[in-house]
Amino acid sequence: MSSSSCKTSEFEAAGFDSVGQDDIGGGGVQVTSFTELVDDVTLHFQIIRLPKQIYAWIGCNSAKLGNLYAAAHTRPSNTVSVTSILGGASDNTGSGIARRLVLKTGLNVIVACNIPKNSPMLEANAEKKLVEKLIALGHSRSKSPAAGPVLSSS
């Protein structure tokens, strides 16, 4: 098995639905799980939309958490800071995704990423699918003439 192949059975065995969306209790928490085939690799996603925050998990090879990153805007310079919460010492897969999601959404972001190390194309394609789903879920704001297209909370 190559390092970029994924096992769907472990994901399903962990109790995750391959496709599903629930609005929990009307309190503004939205959970979305989905699976995408990207370059002959099965990727599993879960998005938990909280007020003013997004948690996203991208899984490949297993239903393990993987590296966990937190990212947020930093004042006063309005840059994005990213920190590793779990893993990430020599494998920063997911930190770039977290940084770019903050820039696109304007929200605090937690990203758990279980994508094989040294798979930049798989990581880029996983991010693209994640952003497409966030847009489809309506987590976008109107376009600003100066800033161009942006993703944000609704």
Automatic annotation (TrEMBL):
Lipid biosynthesis among keywords: no
Protein name stated in the entry: Proteasome assembly chaperone 4
Gene giving rise to this polypeptide: LOC111279661
Keyword Cytoplasm tagged: no
TM segment ranges: none
Alphabetized UniProt keyword annotations: Proteasome
Pfam families: PAC4 (PF16093)
GO cellular component: proteasome complex
